[in-house]
Design a protein that fits this description.
- The protein has a single domain, classed as Roll (Nuclear Transport Factor 2, Chain: A), CATH 3.10.450.
- Helices cover 35% and strands 45% of the residues.
- It contains 3 helices and 7 strands.
- Strands 1, 2, 3, 4, 5, 6 and 7 form a 7-stranded mixed sheet that branches.
- Helix 2 runs antiparallel to helix 3.
- The longest helix is centred in the N-terminal third of the chain and has 36 residues.
Amino acid sequence: MRLSILCCLMFSLHLQPKAQEAEVKQVITELFTAMYNADASALRKVFHDSARLGTVSTDAGGNANVKYADISGFINFVGKLQKGVADERFSITDVRIDGRMASAWVPYSFYRAGTFSHCGVNHILLTQGSDGWRILTITDTRRKEGCL
């Protein structure tokens, strides 16, 4: 009897991280689906109230530049697009979770109205609250070469 209880406990502990990983991946998928559909309401739901967006780029001198943008401006901008204009094709290659924090590595290629624009990697940081996982920050890189 004790052995079966121990086995059930170990099995349930193994499933919990996989379930959380699936939840994190679902939020990320909802993000890109909302972008594709130009759905500002759905987009707003995936972000934490204090979320922000960042981009890491390289200037002509080879120096790193980091720029942050207001999340509400991004949501409003995407919400004014036509469906299918913002098509971010992605894969989630790594998710790490510690308690109520998750981090995801998400390579992507971005197409604007069907035309390739750029590619890179999104680093997405999420937090888990009473309403589920929400995105705190997305920091991306952008390039035109070496894409998926």
